[in-house]
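Something for you to look into today, if you have time. Could you write out one complete protein record for me, on any chain you like? Leave the record below and I will have a look.
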Amino acid sequence: MPWKAYQWKKSQPLTEDYIHHFDRVSALFDYNPWDKGSLRRRAEAVRHTEANRADRKRLAEVLIEYNRRIGNREKALNAAAGLAEENSLAVVGGQQAGLFGGPLLVIYKAVTVLIAARQAQAELGTPVVPVFWIAGEDHDFDEVDHIQVQRPELDVHKLSIRRPWNLRTSVSRWQADEQTWAEALRALDVSLPDSPHKTELLSRLRSSMNGLSTLSDTFAGWMAALFGDSGLVLLDADDPALRKLEAPMFTRLVGGNEHLAAALMRGRRELEALGYTPQVDVTDEQSHLFVIDPSGERILLQRSGEGFADKKDLRAYSREELLALAETEPERLSNGVLSRPLMQEFLLPVLGTVLGPAEVAYWAMTREAFALHGMTMPIVLPRLEFTLVEDAVTKWMDRYDLSMDDVTAGIDERREAWLRAQSPFPVRERFEEARGRVKEVYTPLVDSLAAIEAGMPELGHTNLDKIVRQIDYLERKAEQALARRHDTALSQWKRIELALMPLGKPQERVYNVCAYLNRYGDTWLQELLEADLPMDGGHYLVYI
């Protein structure tokens, strides 16, 4: 399976500079990812901060138990057990738990974690465990309850799981019944065209979900089916057993919350001083913590007086109440996006963390917060990006002399220019000439009508507008006829656009992996996993 590097500018200027001009952002990070010595320095730093971290043996037990429950493979269970060893390290990447795996970028984050862990282990000669952190604590169901598929009608269709519209609990806590999952699977079945791989794919997907009911668990089961044999360890941030391990860190985050907020504000100011815009809103009163109230709702907390409250100040908690929860019911607390890096560091011996472009940009505000808790940031590894280029798309691009740059920039103008070139005469120019001539002959005639009656020119100009609109109408009909004449070619142009830049976005941010597993099986995915790609955050065109 051939691939080649493609220069696709990151959506975040800070991340673009992190990759290509690290000196501009080095003050925001503890390690230079492009310095070969950083791996060993970071490994040594992890070993020297062992006492500041959760108990390894208990962590391994919790992860083994969870991975066994969601059906992960023996290699992944062995990898989880390896975290109990005092010299082992981890490469960690995470994402929200999306329906059927979510968009392709989630799959590529797991691929990056696995490649990075394998390369680091070879370099250091010590066990490096690949860990995928599932943000099961998240409650934004609108982001995770659907996938998008390309339909034969040449559009992008959203396929969703049926759920209550007003859910405010964590993704890991909403239980969908068997009928709801059966409906979602039927909808996926209908959306996928028949192929030699379809029966096996759907069977594999159903099997991975067997006995699991939450979006978080079914996501984990599917990720285990895809990557368990490669040793990927799954972790659900909302796992109650894991929360118990996190209790000491929650105590720190609650007890010294003002200091955490101040450290993040310093990080924000430093980032802004370098000319970047913060990707996450950071204010003095934010706690960067959530609490699950007795109804199951996940509530964002802010500091309010000597305690904490929701944004509307309707539900309040004293510091003592939250500290008591941290000790006795830590499963009722959860992290925000800027406290999660600290919790990850507390739980795991993190060598490196795999982040998407936006994540790199907001992690850049956390260095002071790490230092506050006696930690250093792990090595930040920008996620590898991929665009799958199918054989038919390659042929069509060659036929119409289109490059990837043309497609990413938007091909509407190129398509219109191509279509105009297919006409036996320049339609647009000829109609423009006709409009000009009609106006040239008709306008003096209309103006002269005032000599007959004062109101006649107004009627004449109204009549001229009608004539021009009729010419416009005929022009549109001519263009439509030309388009019908070249309908097959235009559908190929549309398919290029839908394949590579659906909805004007990178393919990996829109489509789900199931469509490609259905068409091509999983050989291409296994080849990606085995590729020795540099951990440079690059974008690759993969030809399948």
